[in-house]
Amino acid sequence: MAFALLIVMASATLPSPLYGIYRLRDHLSSFMVTVIYAIYAAGTIAALLSVRFIAARAGRRGVMLGAVATMMAAAGLLAAWKALPGLLLGRFITGVAVGLVAGTAITYLIELRVSEGANASPILARNIGTAVTVGALGIGPLIGGCLAEWVKHPLTLPYLIFVALGAIALIGLATAPETGTPAPPASPDSQASSASRSVRILVPGAAATLAAFAANGLFAGLSGLFLATTLHHPSHALSGATLFLVFSSGVGAQLATSRLQASAVLVVGTISMLIGLALLVTAVRLSTPSLALFLLGGALIGAGAGAVFKGTTGLVLEATAPEDRLAMTSDLLIALFVGLSIPVIGAGVALDRGASPPDTVLGFAILVGSGLAGAGALLGHGLKTAQQPAGASSSKPPHASIQ
Hints:
403 residues; 81% helix
């Protein structure tokens, strides 16, 4: 199950280091590159909005099987159709696959773990789900960048490899048990409680996730351009390795904070991101731009984003009834993919209209840092408010099994 999640999520960023080749092939502007990067987000968000209804009919395993098959179809299309329309359509279909798997996988992993017995804690499953979600986004560009640098047919071979990996994932998923069933209708009191919880916890949690992954989206969409033009390092392998560093740092941060409470993880992630943004701005605004500072800033930003996602996911799921976890996870992931895609289009527009890369990065950093700090403060206030009625109504901590 985790392997299937890894493969589909990696396909989301597989073409990131290849955009330089696409730019030359199709004579693309910086703005069009960011639009192509963001096209898959439209499919992702559409799938995330509908995945809870699909899962109620097809089950968790059915959604995962469909997601992997969709990813394979998209990869085959991208390998075969060597033109801009094929790239746009292939990225959109990839987005659908990513949305289906992202909206299902963490909940499915938790349910698989819980089904092992009454004493099985879902903490490991939740940590695996968040770590693979973030880490896979770095593995995709590492594979694509290395193949583009040292292997022939860089716009074909990476996609064919993912078709083969998808076939392996399908075989594995065929042996996995089904866990999901349609949730029973919620009572009016439960619906009111859920709505209140969404406003107090989910909204600021989603805002923090969006802000954190907006910085990751800047790297995924434009790091190759910055490396080639501002830092004068046009290597496809370096572009892929940079994204691998950013997203793998997120996994490292999640593993390093395994003993911390979700609220503490969120604080650590916020601090790491703010420091990383400051280093990124410094790296591109020096009289001689620094590759070392650029990479260090990217690593801290990636680590911070991974920790923020782990913290917000933990806080939201701790305050969510089991039957609502799929919906809550989907909402957080919508915020994640909006952050990965929409803000970077703004950066692409700014560059296309003549803004310099250093000024674009500075404005981007100010917006992301302010948004992240503000969302974190609102989330802290929402948690304090949400915990008060829970303590008054019951002596037992809500959903203690996933704290």
